Amino acid sequence: MLENKKGQLTIFIIIAVIIIAAIIFLFWFFNRMTPITPPSAGENPQVNIEHCINSQVEKSVGKIMNNSGYVKKSNLTKNFDGKDIAYLCYTKSNYARCIVIEPVLIEHIETEIYNDIKNKIDECFINLKTDLEKEGYSVTIESGMGFSINLVPGDVETIINKKITITKADETRKFGEFKINYHTPLYDMAIIIQNIVRQESLYCNSEYTLIMRANPWIEIDKFQTGDDVKIYTLKDIKTKKEIKFAIRGCVLNTPS
Amino acid sequence: MKKRTLKLLSYFEIITLLISIIAFAFIIGDLSKEIKIVSALDIGDIIDVTSQIIPSQNLNLGCCFDKDEGLCDPNSEKADCENRTNGLFFKDKFLCDISECKQGCCILGTEAQFVTEKRCTKLSQLYGLPSKWDVSIKDEISCISKSQTGEVEMQLISSFILTSHLEGKP
Q1: What sign has the CA pseudo-torsion B162, B165, B169, B170?
Q2: Is the pLDDT confidence value at A210 over 80?
Q3: CB atoms A153 and B77 under 8 Å
Q4: I want to staple A48 with a disulfide (CB 3.0 to 4.6 A). Which of A36, A41, A144, B159 is the partner?
Q5: Helix, strand, coil content of chain A in percent (nearest 5)
């Protein structure tokens, strides 16, 4: 009888430990799931704008990574693995070097992001104004705006020149320039893409193993299809982000 | 009473088991996202791409030099290059055999890269590091191997000491 009771007690202790562990786990889990709420617009308009712009930049960068350097799908693609991969160097002729499709690649990507987000920036400022007015601020936003997108190592940098004045009670604050950084390996990957494309257009091949040796943060995979199209896959080891692009050049005639 | 306790106990165990299953599934859920099966040869490879034609038929090819980044794009079309603010086009030089595209070893801190002189300056600006461009190193392998020996660091340090000494800096 006593032994039976001891056994029950042991089971109850085990169950109690499991329940406590489950509660701790669920607490940690929900804590992790709760999104970090940005500070209110009035507290820090810079952070509010940063949050809004970066979500737009993030979408553009995602599209660019998915579409081999384009926001919208390119017209010149190769179907591979059920996906259209854009050519960044292409010639339809055989025995000919490929022609670089997007020279000055960094500027091309900057322009792609610029065009994709230019209309959304105004929306961000309208939202900021609405949020500030809800908090009781009087807001003046000048209509003119200048903005630029710069690709730099590790970041996409958005610089917006827009004058904003916010007033509440006796306090007036003025803002003129917003410098926003979105963390992404896009620039560094674009530089490697440019290097591969340059080598392919010059030598009909690329020393991608050497490029990997010089840049240990990246994984490059080259796949040659049955019709001599090269599909390159670049993968940032740290963020797992990847870009694929296609090359068709120096193709030899296949004997029939 | 005993039966009731056992019933309660079994309910507890079932709930605990369910919670554990969900938690475990969530933890391994993150890992499974990275597992991707890639087929070696896809049927899509057989699709012909000859119907896709480059828009312009009259190609005016040459070298396109990115004057901001210091990068060279051989075999580029004039219109594509000149459409860019930073594009500088060199007609007929489709192999980029121009002085702007001459590559050398750029020693940047402890790293070394085989790039153009302009690119070396750009890298120096981007990373805020002193750079030295050495045109006497003719290939990428010799250049990269420089970064992996301590040679690079020593060269830079000694050149800085020498420059400071010549300029009379302490």
Answers
A1: positive
A2: yes
A3: no
A4: A41
A5: 45, 30, 30
